[in-house]
């Protein structure tokens, strides 16, 4: 984020602000008096004709949109109980697999050549493998759900995208934001996660609802700081 520095006309202190706040009076933190910061203007000095394909190289344009945050919903902190179950199943499955392969599994009855009975099956091995496959499936689902959901904060808008094959996207300009809701339970505050809801002027319902977002307070503060009005 670029900062502009100006000298207070009352007390002479250097005051820093952003381009977004130059359209409104600035309050000096020392003398607490308001003043305006003006961006210098320039006069047209000449006009000339150029080829259309050359304009992209020489023309002066508006500043490009900058991405300030790009976050995905957290995976483990948002599911503490599920994460503990997955961890315990993983440890138990690895231990059972190790015992089975090391030959420490419960003794089995002798099996006849060419025959398979329930007693001859290494149940510990297959249960351990099934447990690891189940854990892998759950983790794949969690991470796919997380990385297919993206909340992007730029210096001018908030963009929320969901889905992999079918993609849903919503965006709200910072200047149009009427209401920002931040929902956090006590546990979520300890884990520094929460839900952010954003609605714009003229809309009764929330247009963006992002759950399981890390550091939601910082994101809300960033949106407020980049509002021009």
TrEMBL record:
Residues 148-210 form the YdbS-like PH domain. It comes from the Bacteria. The keyword Membrane applies. InterPro entries: YdbS-like_PH. Keywords: Membrane, Transmembrane, Transmembrane helix. The chain crosses the membrane at residues 80-98, 123-143. Pfam families: bPH_2. This is Bacterial membrane flanked domain protein. The lineage of its organism: Bacteria, Pseudomonadati, Planctomycetota, Planctomycetia, Pirellulales.
